[in-house]
Amino acid sequence: MTGQLDQLFVSLKQWLVSFLPQAAQPMAGILLSISAIIGAFATMFAITTIMERKILGRIQNRLGPNRVGPFGLLQPAADGIKMLTKEDIVPFAADKLVHFLAPVVLIIPVALALAMIPYGRNMTAVDLDAGILFFFAVGSATELSVFMAGWSSQNKYSLVGAMRAIAQMISYEMPLVLSTVSVLMMAGTLSLPLIVQAQSGYIYEILPRWNVFTPWGLAGFVLFMIAATAESNRAPFDLPEAESEIIAGYLTEYSGFKYALFFMAEYWGLFAVSGLAVTLFLGGWNAPFPFLQWVPSWAWFFAKLGTIIFGFIWVRGTLPRLRLDQLMNFAWKFLLPMSLINIVVTAMWHFSRVFQFVGAREMRWVLCALVLAIPYFFLGRALGEGRPAKRNYKFAE
Amino acid sequence: MHDAFFYIFAILTVFCAVMVVANPVSRSPITSAMFLVLTITCMAALFVQLHAFFLAAVQILVYAGAVMVLFLFVIMLLDLKEEERRRIKAVSAGLGTLAVGSILFLIIKSTLQFGQAGAIPPHTEGSTASLGKLLFSNYVLPFEILSLLLLVAMVGVILLSKKDLK
Amino acid sequence: MDSQLTQYIPILILLLVAIGAAAGMLIASVALGRWANRGRLQNRAKNQNINTPYECGMIAVGEGNTRLSVKFYLVAMLFILFDIEVVFMYPWAVVYRDMLKTNGPVILGSMVSFLGILFIGYIYALKKKAFDWKS
Predict the structure, then answer these.
(1) Does the N-terminal peptide bond of residue A91 adopt cis geometry, omega within 30 degrees of 0?
(2) How far from the centroid of its chain's Cα atoms is residue A284's Cα?
(3) For A177, A387, B20, B111, which has the most beta carbons within 10 A of its beta carbon?
């Protein structure tokens, strides 16, 4: 019974495909999984927008949207209809074709990235040998789309926003990619389903063997999540769209459904990178405890994904936006050296496996944690600007 | 099936490459850069058909991602209107045609002389693991020299762009 | 067409589906927007400023594309250099644990010296204030 529930979607697909002639079956299977992914994440996008507004509302001590439908749950539908019926406004000086193509170009990499993630046992639409490398390769196309949007609008704010966005994306792509290297060293493969498989099993039959429960895994997870926040342009790294400084950055000249597509692609990018974090560090679709294995694998994946997205929303509601020079300093002077040190620590961790004396396991833990903690402390100190000067509030007292 | 894919992507590659240098519609450097991205992506597809999967991914990651961003930033340093006004000179067009023509001649001549290359072995070692095994057993020294090359490049670019600041 | 190449067929299909769906939705929404606003569009005078660039209500002055600072070029160049480093780190990471059993010192030493040489460059860039966005 649990096995059937686990493979529910796989068998559903096989059952649907079996009605077709033999020759068309592989193609139909591919199309079916692609449309399932697109449909599922379009729905998830709608749910996430409403939940984000509700949660942000609660954080800021207000109710959030509550007028359309029960508890305001139909708000995304209302927004969608509004976006669809908006007049399409294009600046007269704009490069019309590039202006039109920019949101289309953004959808491609995020859709491809979503297709590569293993959502459950045997549930990977595109299973490549070099999966994670392709994930980052297609991700680099988002920079191109941002540039197209900013440049074609012929608006100074758009261009500044696009340039900021690209500079930020390329600066944070380094720690993002480097923090995954330690996971690859553990799994010895670039294929995402195999990385999930490498994290299955339990230590002492009870503790999960996820990467996040090792010193390098924890450090890598934190670095990855920070870089992922910046990569998907979310608060506190939402400088490219800093609405109080440069209107909406590269999105300024976009209205109606083009804007909606950008918005959706941004959320899809967030889902993709969160899904990658779950796959690499949180054990993918593996259950946290052996006695919970009866819950279907895809349910575990989406539960973890939901938790990470809730974390993103929480961070957005809590932290103020960074300044551009702080942002750049943080990427190049803190995250990059820390992610390189993390790789060295992982190399040490595997290298020290040869030592077999009593307490070697504990010593390895302490040593690796120390090698990570000391540079963390000093790099963090170097990053700060010292104590802020004492301020005089003339009228506030 | 395999051949059909090859021809589709080969023709696309050549078409986009021609559009990079000789776009009849737009003289904007940005348009050229966009077509360069398409060229690179089509070449990655050709690499996939040669079983060089790692190379294909790296092609997109480094060229379509990083090098393209550099090109775009450099283009934004230029005065775009000036670039668009610039006409194609007869001399440079003639020289370019001559260069392309002679390379084409060489290729055709050598193909005719030596015949077609034999079919490639079905499993060229293109996977990441086999590449890594080779790189870190037989080619450790070139790998280390490469790090020196990267160091020189880093020093060079910093010297170039930070020259005016002491 | 062997099994390794067929892995890439879904990518091609997804590419076409994504382009088609996005472009189709956009064209449909443009048409729908024109239909929904047909009354307003008919009454609008030709010289209204709705199509001018939106720069906080001010009338836009000068070119939309200004020239940019050389700082961006520096960041992009450093990004390429570290990107190439990553390209070599991926195959290393994949074979690391396998080769540790047979040839441990070489596999660890090669990457440590590679990183060491790059670290010199990193320190140089740090001292030359290449990473400082101010200035």
Answers:
(1) no
(2) 14
(3) A177
Burial of A146 (0-12, 13-18, 19+ CB in 10 A): buried
Residue pLDDT, tens place only, C68-83: 777 788 888 888 888 8
Q: What is the pLDDT of residues A280-301, one digit of tens each?
A: 888 888 888 877 777 888 888 8
Do residues C22 and C40 share a domain? Answer: yes
Backbone angles phi, psi at B58, to 5 degrees: -65, -35
Whole-number pLDDT of residue C57: 67
Judge if C78 and C22 occupy the same domain: no
Chain C residues in contact with B131 by the CB 8 A cut-off are 91
Return d(Cα A200, Cα A116) in angstroms, integer. Answer: 19
Query: Closest residue of C to A188, CA-based?
Result: C94
Beta strands (DSSP E) in B11-105 are none
**What length is written for chain B?**
166
Is C18 in the same domain as C80?
A: no
Domain stop point among C66, C83, C101:
C66
- Domains, chain B, with CATH or none: 2-161 (1.20.120.1200)
Mutate to test the interface with C, among B73, B140, B166 (most CBs of C within 10 A): B73
Domain boundary (C66, C82, C99) is at C66
Contact predicate C118/C126, CB 8 Å: no
Contact C36 A257 (CB under 8 A): no
As for how many domains chain C has, the answer is 2
Global pTM value: 0.87
For residues C82 and B151, the answer to whether their CB atoms sit within 8 Å is: no
Three-state secondary structure string covering B106-121: HHHHHHHHHCCCCCCC
Residue C58 sits in the same domain as residue C91: no
- The three-state secondary structure class of C58 is strand
Residue C55, beta-bridge partner list = C58
Report the complex ipTM: 0.84
Q: Do C125 and C106 have their domain in common?
A: yes
What values do phi and psi take at C8, rounded to 5? -90, -10
Give the structural domain span for C44.
Answer: 1-66
Burial bucket for residue B90 (CB in 10 Å: 0-12, 13-18, 19+): exposed
Residue B165 has pLDDT above 60, yes or no: no
Burial (CB count within 10 angstroms: exposed 0-12, middle 13-18, buried 19+), residue A84: middle
Q: Which tokens go with C37? A: 């606003």
Residue keyed to tokens 């040839």: C103
Q: Please check whether residue A148 touches B, CB under 8 A.
A: yes
CA dihedral (C74, C78, C81, C86) positive or negative:
negative
Indicate if C107 and C94 belong to the same structural domain.
yes
For residue A342, give the nearest of A224, A212, A182, A171 by alpha carbon: A182
Taking the domains of chain A in order of start, what are their residue ranges?
29-85, 92-327
Closest to C63 measured CA to CA, from B75, B87, B81: B81
Does B23 contact chain A (CB < 8 Å)?
Answer: no
3-state SS of A18-55 is CCCCHHHHHHHHHHHHHHHHHHHHHHHHHHHHHHHHHH
- Taking phi over 0 as left and psi of -120 to 50 as alpha, with beta for the rest, B155 belongs to alpha
